[in-house]
Amino acid sequence: MSSDQIIIVGAGLGGLAAAVRLAAQGRRVTLIEKNERVGGKLNLVTAQGYTFDTGPSLLTMPWVLEELFAAAGRRLSDYLQLDQIEPTCRYQWPDGTHFHAWQRLPQFVQEVERLSPADVAGLFRFLAHTAQIYDAVADNFLLRPFDGIRDLLTPRLLRDGPRIDALRSVDRAVRSFFRSPYLRQLFNRYATYNGSSPYLSPATFNVIAYIELVEGGWYVRGGMYQLAHALQRLLEELGVELRLNTSVASILSERGAVHGVRLEHGETITARQVIVNADPRYAYTTLLPEQQRRAARLARLEPSCSGFVLFLGIDTSYPQLAHHNIFFSSDYQAEFTAIFQKGVPAADPTIYVAATCVSDHDHAPPGHMNLFVLVNAPALGPRVCWPREAEAYADRVITRLEQHGLHHLSQHIVYRQIWTPAEIAARYNAADGAIYGLSSNHPFSAFMRPPLRAPELRNLYFVGGGTHPGGGIPLVLLSGRAVAERVSADYR
User: Fold this and answer.
1) In 3D, which of 352, 373, 370 has the Cα closest to residue 361?
2) Which one of 101, 109, 201, 202 has the largest count of C-beta atoms within 10 Å of its C-beta?
């Protein structure tokens, strides 16, 4: 095979996006994926008539996706249908209090007023404050991801730096705008979108709430996995070679530059440039055995949280469930203390439930529901033996849902599958089972992420949630754009 090609290791959304952009530029691209399907953590499980999305369940910033298809000379609408979900999410607390997060701002304000009239003014102050954060970070961090601190030392950063609110936590900032403990917990939740604690991560991440509230949230008709399927269709149209069920054993390098990969079965593929769409900590430890110093440095950094997942097919319907549901714990701070400081699953966890059958009726048999249940869990460590504890913890989560009003849930389960952090680590080569790579529990966490362009080896790049600008569908797609720009610039 020609050494003029680009190899992308891993077909998650970042790898797919990079492949599309590079192929659209006329580059020869080979995409290698160890699993049977593309998509990475954006994937699906099907069994006994139930369909479950396994990863991201909400799409924000759809213009990023539109721009990706436009870069390939296509229209997004020819491949996917995006639907806004109303409400975006239904929240419920242990005392029965509930809140519907409507996408239409007047309705959202009415919900805030119903729950806590004194906080309506705080909501508008919060939106104004987070709009300033968005204006400050959009160009510097999101749309122009960086390779190092030098890229950020610009006059604009010095001017806008104080506006990003990085020196207090998400929780401290939220408390300055809202009096209601319910609303504080609701807005603190957005820190979990990148696998972090609202009591530790910088208030800059309140921009996540702003983006969802102002720009809205979408669901991909047919299931979120249709996004991965559409990107696969696009890259096939562009002539990208896709090799599924193929594992890479190592990345080959010589004289400070990479020149290909070796597959598990022994085949060697040469390349001019290699892009890794996997957790950089996994890559440095497993695929780059000569880079142990970098691997050791990354291993000392705090991973994001992992997840404990239940796929439940049930033979009844709960009309109170929306498409997206959050059942809050009674002590949110104790929950994150357990996960990040003690390294154990929370005894009383906040539970996310996605019931896509509310929007796509064929995702469950008639009269049934498909419940994707996710609980934040610690990254893999010595305090938890998941093979021994998984079943009991699953029963605990189901009991909590019954206490939240899903009466007799345990009696209606006809299909049940469990994924622990160990399963996530094995499926996606996610170091420690961390869903989002490194945590953002520090004001300078962004500068600690491995850069898009590897500093130790020429022609080696990283893409995806483990590098810049971070996790989540739009950011991972932007990572694909940024790495494609670097690869093209270096090719010349």
Assistant:
1) 370
2) 201
Burial of 440 (0-12, 13-18, 19+ CB in 10 A): buried
With a CB cutoff of 8 Å and minimum separation 6, the contacts of 126 are 174, 177, 178, 187, 206, 209
Residues whose CB falls within 8 Å of the CB of residue 66, separated by 6 or more in sequence, listed in order: 76
Cβ proximity of 227 and 58 under 8 Å: no
Q: Tokens 């604009």 appear where? A: 156
| Distance separating alpha carbons of residues 283 and 485, to the nearest angstrom | 22
3 state SS of 47: strand
Q: How far is CA 462 from CA 25, 204, 465, in A?
A: 19, 24, 10
What is the pTM assigned to this prediction? 0.95
pLDDT of 382 higher than 90: yes
The structural domains of the chain, ordered by start, are 6-43+58-74+222-300+442-491 (3.50.50.60)
Position 1 confidence tier, pLDDT thresholds 50, 70, 90: very low
pLDDT digits (tens, 9 = 90+) for 463-478: 999 998 888 999 999 9
